[in-house]
Amino acid sequence: MKEKKKIESQESKVESQETIEETQEMQEEATPSVEELEARIAELEDKNLRMMAEFDNYRRRTNKEKLELMATAGERIFTDMLPLVDDFERAMEAISHQPSDVSQLGEGVNLIYQKFLAFLAANDVHPIETEGVDFNTDEHEAVTTFAAGEDQKGKVIDCTQKGYKLGDKVIRFAKVVVGE
Predict the structure, then answer these.
(1) Which of residues 100 and 149 earns the better pLDDT score?
(2) Which residues of 85-121 are buried (b: 16+ CB within 10 A; e: fewer)?
(3) Could you tell me if residue 141 is inside a domain?
(4) How many CB atoms lie within 10 A of CB 157?
(5) Chain segment 17-71, per-residue pLDDT in tens
(6) Most buried of 58, 102, 150, 163 (most Cβ within 10 A)?
(7) CA 128 from chain center: how many Å?
(8) Number of folded domains in the chain?
């Protein structure tokens, strides 16, 4: 019996030794070598460097496109304004040649003014309403107040300078006199 136990013990030791060897082999296979890890690190660093360079190029390209867009965005507006400059030049030339015909001069200036207002409207620039409206700090700038009676309290009485909106954004506040 002792021999049987001794044999079983030896077999158990052999099996344990085989299991330990198998486990060590599996660990060696699962654990990459230092060279493999260094190669993987170098690969990842290279990818990271390339991604950073690509992003930097993208950022530069988009900034350049934005600058170009901003530089040329106003071009259309200025191109559309050139006929107005031409009209003013013709009006000034007419004034220098015919100073006695004031009614035609006034008519010409009025036409240029109407053309300019149409140009502003075409570019979504509209005057801010001021006559008889309640004072609104989002659109109006109070220059002064004026005693105007109870019915005019908090209302715009007079406009000293027109204000304008580009779409819904105020680009110049209307300067007004407010009743108190």
Answers:
(1) 149
(2) eebeeeeeeeeeeeeeeeeeeeebeeebeeeeeeeee
(3) yes
(4) 19
(5) 777 777 777 766 666 788 888 999 999 999 999 999 999 999 999 999 998 887 7
(6) 163
(7) 25
(8) 1
